[in-house]
Prior knowledge:
Layout: H1 5-41, H2 44-63, H3 69-87
Amino acid sequence: MPTSISAKKRLRQNEVRRARNKMIKTNVRGQVRKVLEAIKAGDAETIEKEFRSAVKKLDQAAAKNVFHVNKAARTKSRLSRAIKAAKS
């Protein structure tokens, strides 16, 4: 346990940030899963809607440094490639 005042504050801040980051990661993973399920179902309208939402959440997570920018780009690229493969 921290003993100094500043270390105690840092611990509180880290707990809040860890909870916030976990929530963001969970939401992003859930949205990516929705896109993949829509691809399996084959519903073009749902795929586009869920993909747009996933891209937005990935970009927001990357902007907040929850995900690395390259990881967000890689995930978007893989989803886009999966969508194109499903359409053809």
